[in-house]
Amino acid sequence: MRAALRSLPHSAGGHLMADCLRSLLQRGWPLALARYLLAAGYAIHAHGPLPLYSTRSLSVAWEMWLRGEFIVPQLNGAAYAHKVPLLYWLIHAGWAVGGVSDTWPRVLMLLIGSANLLLLAWFTRRLQPGAPRAAALAPWLLLGCAFWFVYSLQVLFDGLLACWVLLALGALLRGGPATPRPQWWLCSLAVASGLLTKGPVMLLHVVPALLLAPWWSASVRAAPGRWYARGLLALVGGGALFALWLLPALQFGGPEYRGELLWTQTAGRVVRSFDHARPWWWYLAALPVLALPWLLWPRAWSALRKLPWRVDPALRFLLAWLLPALVAFSLVSGKQAYYVVPELAGLAALLALALTREGERGRAWLWPFALGLVVLGLVLVLVPRSVVAGGSGRHWLHDLLGGDLAWGAGVSAMGIALWLGGARDGIHAATRLAVAMVGMAVLVHGLFSQALWHDYNLQPTADRLAALQAEGRPIAHLGIYEGQYQFLGRLRQPLEPVPLEAAAAWAQARYEFRDAVALMHLEASHRAQPLLLQPFRGEWVEVWYAMDWRYAHGLGELHKPPHPTEISPKDYDRARDLIQP
After folding, report:
1. Residues in contact with 382: Cβ distance below 8 Å, sequence separation at least 6, in sequence order
2. Which own/partner pairs from 180-188 qualify as long-range (CB within 8 Å, at least 24 positions apart)?
3. Alpha-carbon dihedral of residues 359, 362, 363, 364, nearest 10 degrees?
4. 517 and 476 in contact (C-beta within 8 Å)?
5. How far is 181 from 244, CA to CA, in rounded Å?
6. Which of 2, 210, 358, 577 is the most buried (most CB within 10 A)?
7. DSSP-based three-state secondary structure for 407
8. How far apart are CA 483 and CA 61, in angstroms?
């Protein structure tokens, strides 16, 4: 590439083109962005929305759109207090132009992931104005984070939240962390957008760094009163903008929605989570996996140990952001891996500063990852499916092993290329490792789409439920309903959720043949024939006429001859083949 630049014509136009290309390559982020768009663009269109999170987000957006209710989110015919509406509004904006489909939400997630990379380069440049190589490297480090790449393909909220966190913190750093001249208006807008994306949790990502400003900035330490006064105004301004949605939502949502939004989804999660409750040390144990491969890379630890932690304002700023956020999320009862997605961007900025300051010293240490990729590819190619026992169900390894040999061979080839490619310095090694991790993620995603997607694809069930609703049949769902069918089937009526423990009593009270039942998580057994039977994550989804279901469970008389069936491994494969697109 450099030789090609030198060979450009010695004209004004040639010099201008060469300067532009050199600037592009020196910045680094355009190449990272292009690679992300190519890789994620393929992966995100390899299959449909993934249950249960992506399908639920799309179902909420669909019901808001269907009912013309754009203030209070809706799910299965009821107000949905778990999330606030900004992501849904962005989905609606695309649907208003191109119609309702899952194409725009996928494109939207690509745009959000791209914005993460661009904002990270911008944030790192403000964090360390004299280190352009760090701003060029940081997007590569985030792109190479396997968890972040996979998460960016889902229709979820924390990727969008990371944009607002980077924007708010970057607004504090104009002029550099030593002598900041904050853009308080930009910080206020970012805080408001974060609140509209995921509620008060936005403050856990931003407020600690703002409060600890006298520790990381000498100029703020000289006059803290002015800093805190303006910071408070910025937060109040962001809260006021958030209230433009919150107050009408509380009014229109009703008392149950108000109680859940103001207590259950905020303080309730902190004190005693109703969902995802995990011990305080959970994030510490999960971080090496969430930040894979960087926290398992010896070169990264070597570079981190050599940083001047006590005197560098940029490093202090990162610590003021990352450590309080980690402590806060560890103390909160409910924990999910994707809650710390914004902090993965901060970790990428930290590692970029460390690697660029270390320079060419130290070993690359790429061979352990290269060896791991080679071994993983060989396992996918050589280990037969017979190593996993069959039975009435299916372990996911059964379908993953012995799949198309090209995927496993591709993973091994990626490892060999990483092994033989070499690395001149830490920056070059990190970029090569990031490229290898993205390639591996794409190959494994392709293998998932081919070998495992049949166990996640709920489209056949959603289509059957839509047809039953078109016939005017009421539909009940036995067990916890996560909204997984509403968008996929474009359902226009809610399903009636019935707890499994109340299923027998419910069935005894239903006498009309026209009712239908959707049931998830049944074990295979002898039973009357359901309308639809499909595998889902090692279990089963079934759609029944209510009277058939009652008979199969000894709760009533049969209105027609039974169709007993036993689900064998061969039947499982046949059912899987029938529902593959």
Report:
1. none
2. 180/213, 180/217, 180/219, 180/220, 182/230, 182/231, 184/230, 184/231, 184/233, 184/234, 185/234, 185/237, 187/231, 187/234, 187/238, 188/233, 188/234, 188/235, 188/237, 188/238, 188/241
3. -30
4. yes
5. 29
6. 210
7. helix
8. 11
Q: Which runs of E-coded beta strand occur in 431-547?
A: 475-478, 496-498, 516-520, 532-536, 539-545
DSSP letters, 452-481, are TGGGT--HHHHHHHHHHHHTT--EEEES--
Report the amino acid identity of residue 347. L
Q: How many angstroms separate the Cα of 139 from the Cα of each of 114, 122, 283, 326, 441?
A: 10, 10, 23, 22, 17
Q: Which residues pair with 565 in a beta bridge?
A: 527
Quote the Cα angle for 277-281-287, to 5°: 100
Answer for the pair 304, 354: CB distance below 8 angstroms, yes or no. Answer: yes
Are 74 and 63 a contacting pair, CB within 8 Å? yes
DSSP state, residue 392 = S
pLDDT digits (tens, 9 = 90+) for 317-363: 999 999 999 999 998 878 888 899 999 999 999 999 999 887 666 67
* CB contact at 8 A, 212 and 319: no
Integer CA distances (angstroms), 68 to 65, 104, 149, 454, 470, in order: 5, 19, 33, 33, 21
- Residue-by-residue DSSP string for 290-304: HTTTGGG-HHHHHHH
Q: How far is Cα 230 from Cα 216, in angstroms, rounded to an integer?
A: 17
Per-residue b or e along 425-440, where b marks 16 or more CB atoms closer than 10 Å to that residue's CB: bbbbbbbbbbbbbbbb
Strand partners, 545: 516
The pLDDT tens digits of the residues spanning 438-473 come to: 888 888 888 888 777 888 888 988 998 999 899 888
For residue 282, what are its two tokens? 């959970």
Q: Are 461 and 500 in contact (CB under 8 A)?
A: no
| Alpha helices, DSSP H, located in 173-264 | 184-198, 201-211, 213-216, 218-222, 224-253, 255-259
The answer to whether the CB of 137 falls within 8 A of the CB of 355 is yes
CB 575 within 8 A of CB 533: yes
Can you give the pLDDT at residue 249? 93
The C-alpha atoms of residue 25 and residue 19 are separated, in whole angstroms, by 10
pLDDT tens, residue by residue, 113-156: 999 999 999 999 999 988 888 998 999 999 999 899 989 889 99
Asked if the bond preceding 52 is cis, omega within 30° of 0, the reply is yes
Q: How many residues does the chain have?
A: 581
Indicate the residue type of 127: L
